[in-house]
Amino acid sequence: MVRFRLGTRGSPLALTQAHMVRAALAEAQGWSEDAIEIVPIKTTGDRVQDRALAEIGGKALWTKELDRALYDREIDASVHSMKDVETIRPDWLHVAAMLPRADVRDRLIGVETIAELPPGAVIGTSSPRRRAQLLAHRPDLTIALLRGNVDTRLAAVANGDVDATLLAAAGLDRLGRAVGHAVPTDQMLPAPAQGAVGIETRADDAAATMLIASIDHAETHACVMAERSLLAALAADCHSPVAALASLAGEMLTLRAELLAEDGSARVGGWVEGVLGEELGARLAVDLLDRSPPEVRRLFAGG
């Protein structure tokens, strides 16, 4: 008998993450995994692969169909890669849990290091952050739009369509793909919430929320919410090249971030530290924007 329904996108990585959530929930509740149904839902982001997300609706393209299914009670919870979830969510939704965070770094596919890329090399990515960071290191590079699932992007490199690409280490690891070379975070700070899997419930569904909360990894949750609070304070959107990473040591949380111009020609970074519960995201946002040149500042907080 099905006791719980988990909604997810239908990509191989999304399904792998949904199975991770199902296994964790079954163990926490003492259920058979058969008691938890995984419900794949096709999203607009999966259907439209030839344009950048920012051009066709942003991160909502990954979430709106799942949100509708959750709202209509077709599912009890939805599983997301947190870096693909819009910063501002409807009041009726609640992030009830996050799984332990995986490797936050990007992996470079095609060569070992950014420095080894040949002059004028073509790098495939759809991420404004990765584009800006790459160009900050190597202004000679050519950035080409590349979207699609992990296999699609790996194939683009293998077939010579692009010289290299960047993929999240977490996704590659979860799919069992031991490919690429990790880029140190001091060279490329990751996207906010990269490597984190989140589970949302309806805020008015106390039973589902309590069940999902039983698998919450508190450290991941605190760090990711700090990174998302920075995004909210910056009023960042899909066009805004921003990187952020929080870490927790006891009750002390450190939040690092970087804002960039679209072409990587300007960048500003900084960090703040404080106890859990402090408004670190807002504090860091003010500092970064105060020190940003106009070509960076116009991309954040309404320009």
Automatic annotation (TrEMBL):
Root EC class: transferase
Catalysed reactions listed for this entry: 4 porphobilinogen + H2O = hydroxymethylbilane + 4 NH4(+)
A Gene Ontology BP annotation from the UniProt entry: protoporphyrinogen IX biosynthetic process
Domain of life: Bacteria
Presence of the UniProt keyword Transferase in the record: yes
Keyword Transferase: yes
Further facts: The porphobilinogen subunits are added to the dipyrromethane group.
Name of the molecule in the record: Porphobilinogen deaminase
Native source species: Sphingomonas sanguinis
